[in-house]
Amino acid sequence: MSRHSVRPAKKSVSDLALFGSGPAFKDPLHVGRPNIGNRRDFRRRVDDILDRRWLTNGGPYVEEFERRVAEFIGVKHCIATCNATVALGIVIRALGLAGEVIVPSFTFVATAHALQWQGITPVFCDIDPRTHNIDHRKVEGLITSRTSGILGVHLWGRPCPIAQLQTLANRHGLALLFDAAHAFACRYRGRRIGGFGDAEVLSFHATKFINAGEGGAVVTDDDDLAAEIRLMKNFGFSGFDKVISIGINGKMSELSAAMGLTNLESVDRFTRINRGNFELYGEGLSNIAGLSVIRHDEKENSNYQYVVLEVDAAKARLTRDQLLAVLQAENVLARRYFYPGVHRMEPYCSHFPKAGFRLPITEAVADRVLVLPTGTGVTKADIRKICAILRKAVVQHREVSATLGGQSNPR
Ligand code: T4K
Prior knowledge:
The protein is of the alpha/beta class. It is 36% helix and 15% strand. The chain has helices at 39-52, 60-73, 84-94, 109-116, 162-172, 223-232, 254-264, 267-284, 313-316, 320-329, 348-351, 360-368, 380-395, 397-404, and strands spanning 29-30, 77-81, 100-104, 121-125, 147-153, 175-179, 187-188, 191-192, 199-203, 216-220, 237-239, 242-243, 291-293, 307-311, 332-333, 369-372. Helix 8 runs parallel beside helix 13. Bound molecules: ligand T4K. Residues 30-34, 83-85, 107-108, 110-111, 153, 179, 181-182, 203, 205-207, 216, 333, 337 line the site of ligand T4K. Ligand T4K binds at residues 30-34, 83-85, 107-108, 110-111, 153, 179, 181-182, 203, 205-207, 216, 333, 337.
């Protein structure tokens, strides 16, 4: 039995916590518990940092982390940062983006905020319902004289239509940047994500496949761009007492780099566990009316960081939000990433109140996606139990709807 469990598997619908019995999990089961690598190696590195008394500003662990990430991806430059949001801001500025940038709305809000923070207007493009990524066929119609770039997001680790976006960027003289926060270790046409477009941005946040506690990086093959980003992330210092341009503090600390290096050494183990979890969910949720887990192309070597359930409410006869309520009652904190779409968040919904009209797929997908707990902190018994709860809820959809008052997804 899982360490989270307080009772054996439920045997009938009256056992569902929604109907008054205790939850299946004593403690909340989170979506994104951090993956932790070898603790002894991490402690050794921490001791080393403390002995050396060098905590940040270009320490040896940050340098090693940058070198190892660049080698892993097969790219010339990796510039480590304090997080991906700041990395996005820095590279957007270093590329000289201005005016408008085309970006999906179905993403974490940081992607758009990094543009708006610098007075650049994010122009939201709809997504492909099959991949949940920016639909390249809809990009060209959004290009205006103010457009300076395209910012794609490799959502759930699945690569954007990179070749098509590059063709568009070349044809219109636009910069092409990728938010690869979800896609560390994934591939596109045989090459690791990170080496495409003008630059790509990685996240090493606690909840990411490889974490550094907090952390991010810009990866690029462009020597000049890399040099500019190195300056920008360190206030514009080119040497002692010499500042040659405007910069910010975007540096990664030695402690974060120690965590990042340690976790990087477990990349194969994390992938194996994530993939096992993913397959178990696939089996456990097969043949349930209206529920499907999004698939990954074998060639993309996914990191399987996210298990994404799509709920077809007509077939399941329950909405995504009703299923979420069922899970929450059981202490399963599944998440509605990335509901309701960035265009429905501030300041974007005030700036563009009608953006939803040209984002029908974004709105439909945002209403049906539910992200389930996975990673090294979740056991196989946990997953079997979550699948059993979902199956039971769909079988007993009438009772669930009656209890929840037939609520539909809120807007
Ligand atoms: N671009 C994209 C496409 C992104 O998804 C993100 C971040 C970024 C850019 C920006 O990257 P960073 O600047 O963060 O490097 C979380 C993360 O905070 C965020 O990094 C991530 N995307 C986003 C998808 O998820 P929340 O609001 O869901 O965070 P929170 O605190 O609810 O944590 C998520 C789950 O993890 C919970 O189930 C609790 C659990 N958790 C969390 C932390 C921090 C733990 O178990 N331990 C922990 O230490 O945003």
